[in-house]
Design brief:
125 residues, mainly alpha, 2 domains, 3 strands, TnpV protein
Length: 125
């Protein structure tokens, strides 16, 4: 008996494994885009908490594009929040020139708040 057979009804190839014929399945080709830290965090969250959605995206070949989009949205939101918060709290280049350590402390605090907002609204929701 053959090791590989083709089923014309469903258009699939089957390969013999032991006493059984198993379908030869492959994931569809996926356009690869770079996924940054935000997308990686979201992927980890999906794997742990939304396994069905993660597997659906993975098997349909849309996972990378989805994560790259989330990453881009998160980065834009983060930058916008940092800019808005620094303007609101008057953390400017003038402050940076006058008191660099105060500026660094305030910018670190603003960035931490912006990260928390992005995490809550996009990454872990």
């Amino acid at each position: 008996m053959e090791n590989r057979i083709f089923d014309e009804k469903n258009g699939l190839w089957y390969e013999k494994q032991g006493d059984y014929y198993l379908p030869c399945l492959e994931l569809p080709e996926e356009e690869t885009k770079p996924v940054g830290i935000w997308g990686q965090r979201h992927a980890k969250h999906l794997k742990q908490n939304h396994k069905v959605l993660y597997m659906n995206l993975l098997t349909s070949g849309k996972l990378n594009r989805y994560l790259a989009d989330i990453d881009e949205q998160a980065e834009q939101l983060f930058l916008r929040l940092v800019k808005e918060l620094s303007e609101k709290e008057k953390v400017t280049e003038k402050l940076k020139a006058e008191n660099a350590m105060l500026w660094v402390g305030k910018m670190n605090e603003i960035q931490a708040r912006a990260r928390e907002i992005v995490n809550a609204e996009l990454i872990y929701s």
